[in-house]
Amino acid sequence: MLENCIVRGSLLAGAASLSNTQLLAFWEQGEAHANKPTPTEVLGPFFRKGAPNNTRLHVPGEPGFPLRVSGKVLNTRGQKIHGAVIDIWQADHKGLYDVLGYRYRTRLLIDATDYAIDTILPGHYDDRPAQHIHYMISAPGHKTLITQAYFATDPFFDGDPDKNFKKRNIVGNRDLIRPVSLFEGPGPSRASIQFDLCLETL
After folding, report:
1. Which domains does the chain have, with CATH numbers?
2. What would the pLDDT profile of 133-167 be if each residue is shown by its tens digit?
3. What is the per-residue DSSP string for 117-181?
4. What is the pTM of this model?
């Protein structure tokens, strides 16, 4: 926060008169309001390079409950990150990954802070019985982030993600379990989650 104030010129006149204690207080206040980096997760065995840049992963008529995933890509200061690349991949409605092609896989090139994809709610499978979507995000000057998004409505959490997010050590951090909104008619029903991504600078 102090750095931003100096850059914007709002502390030029008074910064010299601030004591070290006051400057430290400004810094601590900024740290308290800084965005927390998105928690990390395991990469998983199903990542594939070379996915197409495609925001629509779900083809109409295919099985699976439609899902809209959107969010922002920012750093811990809340600033826009330019040139971010987001790899996203997930299982189909049966819990199967396409390991030969690129179904339910994309590599988004982000010009602005916002991203969005249209997909389906992934299915369950034995090794990782909680529904999830994989992410790998890279950007110049930032640490690569590997993480996953989970769903608060998933039966795996028995209706109480706060209590059961540690179940079977599947989810590493409660913040990765996202609220799910349901939109009904006109047109097909669909679910929606927001999953913001916060990267650390190098």
Report:
1. 2-32 (no CATH), 66-199 (2.60.130.10)
2. 999 999 999 999 999 999 999 999 999 999 999 99
3. EEEE-----SSS-S-EEEEEEE-TTB--EEEEEEETT-GGGTT-HHHHTTGGG--S-GGGEE--E
4. 0.82
